[in-house]
Every structure is written in structure tokens, then in C-alpha cells.
Automatic annotation (TrEMBL), chains A, B:
A Pfam family it matches: OCD_Mu_crystall
Species in which this protein is naturally found: Streptomyces beihaiensis
Matching InterPro entries: NAD(P)-bd_dom_sf (IPR036291), ODC_Mu_crystall (IPR003462), ODC_N (IPR023401)
Protein name: Ornithine cyclodeaminase family protein
């Protein structure tokens, strides 16, 4: 079987949201059950920056691999996946699209686990690639009745809303103020680079689910500390990664629960329609490998003799 | 320009020895001149083994990348190369062939720099992939008048000799005893996994060049400590890597000279036809990246606008 080599355009064309969500859900469960080796990232010094590797091994699926990116040049990322039964390289995916889509898929799994059931009004603060892939993936787990998007540059929010309507068939509108994208929404996603809060905690109504993708340390945070006080449930995709930040979180890390544990039923998630749930997305290592492997199987089929999970 | 993806068969078909030798010579010179960032290897824990990454950046050539291999599964290796000017992934090479050929090319550069001029009688102890690629690459720097090969399993030496005659057109013969492949040769290469010496130092005549590829620590070494006493010049492709072994070398590391420094004329190599020169091959990091990039340019041409070295 040949090695699958894909670039950003091919990822956009060939990866569908249900596939990505399914792969990521499997990896999150595996992380909870001890079936995912996802060691801390390692770095090789390139002089004025680093090559950074996040590795992952999914035991039940018989997969391992890594994502590589650099901080010296800002070059294309690379994800490589091998089968651990036959030791064959299966897929190499380069560019930025796979990483953004797996982050979207992680966010969608959190929405599925923690948001109230039924169609949602989705509010986005931020109109970049990360906001886009959250919307793209959430569509695989919930009917999106309407999406509202706010961005620092209004024209980007307008472009985003047009694209959402055209490509995803979602009712979408751009708004001027973040507050308009936050109040009266069932799910709110902040996907910014902002070092200061883009929302106020009391804009969040009871029952809302919030995902924060951007900065969330004490010195730089897109959501306020008061959101932690209002949250009934705080989730993250990786407790280990959340606790390995060089600086404390603005949200209380000691209250965070692993999303995988909620999926497995080992920890409660939402227990009331009035709960406010907050998901701190940190990008569980190994999930890129899971998505690249799922993409391989979707395009080329599952390799003969490979381990079937479960 | 598309990304070049090559497997072992394609490397065998498309990489010629002069190209590999030229690429490796450039990297060795760059290492001497400070133009190669080749940090210590980094490891990510996979539970019952590691993913290991050796990174390299060639500044003048505008290249960076890494080799990845694992100690958990023993899967195919992967070498990836990016252009640092445009940040585009250029080539992905998987399998074991590229690494063996770059090791061959390093050995050939050492032969070119340190062996006596003129046609050589080449003696090989070991008949595996590493011995093969030494012979393959040495042919790009010296006329090989004859190759003699000894192996622990005689039939492997015979197969090797037949293949050398057929594929490389070299006069080749298999011998029973390592001594027959060592005495009266101009260049001797040991390419074994042996933990005990496969030759005696006094088999090495004045004027001989020796390359050792296999184990060379105090507790496990394919060449004897006495070879260090007999050697007039001790070379290595990387002083940093030679000195980072967890155990001391059986040959005196404090007398070792960087091959790149000899190529640059900054250190003397052979100063007399009677000198015995010994090359301790450790596999300078970054050389895989240089060879993969040269292979890319040979197959697809040099990318437009890319930095031209020198």
C-alpha cells in the first residue's frame, strides 16, 4: 500500500468532520483509558528557533507518529503516522489544515459531551482558521441553527459569515461587538490571540457551553478569571498539558476534568440544563496522529491485517 | 513544486554516489565553518521505546529538517527536508536506504581526505547494508582495484562479492578470515555489530586507512584499543557526537580531529604515505537532510529562488 501524502488543499477536500470527530473522540477515550502515549513535546535547537515534535501512540489502533513544527522559520507543519504492527509509514500530511481541523474536532467532542442537547445558536469571537474549523466540526455533532461571529476587523467577520453560509449552508451573521456574539448563545467559542479578555463573565447565560482556544495564562488570557467562578464544570482535553504551561492558568486548573473521563462516564460533565460548562482546549498530543490515520483509511482504506480497535 | 516522496526502491534507483558524496562533503564543511546546526538528538517516550529525532539546519543552503526513527517498533525511518527561505516541505524519504547511503558517503569523504591517492585495494569486514554503501560511495572518490570481503557467515560474503561484481563492476572476492580482508589492503572498513575486535592492530600495514562503523565503546568494540596506538591520525565526522556517547570510546577521543576541519585545511590529515589513518564514523546529524535535499534537486530540480550555497 502506498504512503498517503496530502497537502492543505487535499485535507480540505478529503477530510470530513464526522471522520475527524470520530478519530479525536477515540483518542480522547484512549487517553483516559491509558491507551494513548502522549509524552511532553520535545525540542531540537536550530539556532534561532526550534524544531518541536509532539508524539503520540494509540495502542488499540496500532498507530504511532508525531507532528513536527518549527519556531525558527514558521514552515509548513508535518504529521507522520506509522502502523505499529507492520512498522510501515502510512501517511504524511503537511501544512496547517490538519492541525486546525483536529482542534476543531476536539472542540466538537467537548460540545457534544457538555453542551445542552438540541440545535444550538453558536457565537464565535474570532474569525480565523481556528474559529472556522470549530464551526466545521461542531456541525458534525449538533445542528447549528445560527452562527454569530465577531472579529477585531469587521470585514473578516463578514467574510467568515458569507463563507459559512455558502460552504456549510449555515445561517450566519457578522456582528460588531463580541457581546453580540456571546449573549444569548448556547455555545460560545473564543478563538483569538487576545492577551486581554474579549468577553465578560456575566454575558454568559446559565446553560451556556464555552470553549476557549486562545491565550489563557495569568498574564495573557482571552477569557476573564471570573469565568472560572461562573463555571460549574471546567473541562480540558489534557490535564497533563494544561498543567505543564510555564505559567498558571487564568482558570482554576485544580478544578479541571479530563474530557476523556467525561466521555467514558468516569466523571460527571453537565448535570443540569442551567450549568455553565467551559472547555479549555490545549490540543491533546496524539490527536493529530489519530486524525491523519483516519484520513488515510478514508482515502486508501484500512491496511490489511491492521489492528482493529475495540 | 510538489513534495518529493521516496521509498527505499526509489532511493536505490535515483540517488547516485557522487551526489551523496557531494552533499555530505558540503555538510561536513558547514559543520566546521559553523553553518550547520546539528543539535543533540531528542527523544519522545512511547512507553516501551522512543521516537528519536536528529535535526539539522544548513544555513548556506537554506535547508532544515530531521531524521526520525523509533526504538519501540523498529518501523521505517523518515527524513523530512524543508526550504528555510519559503518554509515549504521539499522531500520526505522513508525507509532505511537513505541513512545507509549517507553513512557510505561520509565514509567516502573520509577515504578521499585521508587515504593515499590512487587506486585502492579495499577490504571489508562485514557484508551487510553498511558495508555495501561504503563500497558504493567509495567508488565515487577512488578507483576500487579490488574488494575483499569477509563475514561471519561465509555465504553472505559470497553473495556480497557477486553483487559487487554484477552491480558495480568491481573485481570482488569473498574470503574466510577477516585477516585476509585486512592485511595488504589500502583501505579497510569494519562494518559489523561485533562486541569484540574483528581485527588485530598489527594486521594494519603502514599507509592504511581504516574506517570503523560498528561498536567502538570500551565495553563493546569491533576494533581493538591497540589500533588507537598505531594510528597516526584519528578522524571523526562529529567530535560533539563522538564525545556524547554514554561510555568512553575504545579509541582516544582526545586525539580525534573533525573530518570537516581536515576538508577545510584547518587541521592536518595524512602527512606521510606511511601514516595509518583511522576514521570513527558516528553519523553527523544533518547529513541525512543534506542528502535528501540533494536527492530532491536531482529528481525535481532546485527550487526557484532558493539560496545557492557558496
Amino acid at each position: 500500500m502506498p504512503v498517503l501524502l496530502l497537502d492543505d488543499d487535499e485535507v480540505r477536500a478529503r477530510l470530513d468532520a464526522p471522520t475527524a470527530v470520530r478519530a479525536v473522540r477515540g483518542a480522547l477515550l484512549a487517553a483516559h483509558e491509558g491507551g494513548l502515549d502522549a509524552p511532553a513535546r520535545v525540542r531540537a535547537d536550530l539556532g534561532d528557533g526550534h524544531l518541536v515534535f509532539t508524539a503520540g501512540r494509540l495502542r488499540a489502533e496500532g498507530l504511532f507518529g508525531f507532528r513536527a513544527y518549527d519556531t525558527a522559520v514558521g514552515a509548513e507543519q508535518l504529521v507522520a503516522v506509522w502502523g505499529s504492527d507492520d512498522g510501515r509509514l502510512r501517511a504524511v500530511v503537511h501544512g496547517d489544515e490538519l492541525g486546525a481541523r483536529r482542534t476543531g474536532a476536539i472542540g466538537a467532542v467537548a460540545v457534544d459531551a457538555a453542551a445542552r442537547p438540541g440545535p444550538i445558536r453558536l457565537g464565535l469571537v474570532g474569525a480565523g482558521a481556528q474559529a472556522w474549523t470549530q464551526l466545521w466540526a461542531i456541525g458534525a455533532v449538533r445542528q447549528v441553527a445560527e452562527v454569530t461571529v465577531a472579529a477585531r476587523r469587521p470585514e473578516r467577520a463578514q467574510t467568515f459569515a458569507r463563507r459559512a453560509a455558502e460552504e456549510l449552508g449555515v445561517r450566519a451573521r457578522a456582528v460588531r461587538e463580541p457581546e453580540q456574539a456571546v449573549r444569548d448563545h448556547d455555545v460560545v467559542v473564543t478563538a483569538t490571540h487576545s492577551a486581554t479578555p474579549v468577553l465578560e463573565a456575566d454575558w454568559i447565560a446559565p446553560g451556556t457551553h464555552v470553549t476557549t482556544l486562545g491565550p489563557k495564562t495569568l498574564s495573557r488570557h482571552e477569557v476573564p478569571a471570573a469565568l472560572g467562578d461562573r463555571a460549574d464544570v471546567l473541562l480540558t482535553d489534557s490535564l497533563a498539558q494544561a498543567n505543564s504551561y510555564s505559567e498558571p492558568h487564568v482558570l482554576p486548573a485544580d478544578r479541571m476534568v479530563a474530557l476523556g473521563a467525561v466521555l467514558a462516564g468516569a466523571e460527571p460533565g453537565r448535570t443540569s440544563p442551567e450549568d455553565i460548562t467551559v472547555f479549555c482546549s490545549v490540543g491533546l498530543a496524539g490527536t493529530e496522529v489519530a486524525v491523519a490515520a483516519a484520513l488515510h483509511d478514508a482515502v486508501l482504506g484500512r491496511p490489511e491485517g491492521s489492528t482493529v480497535a475495540g
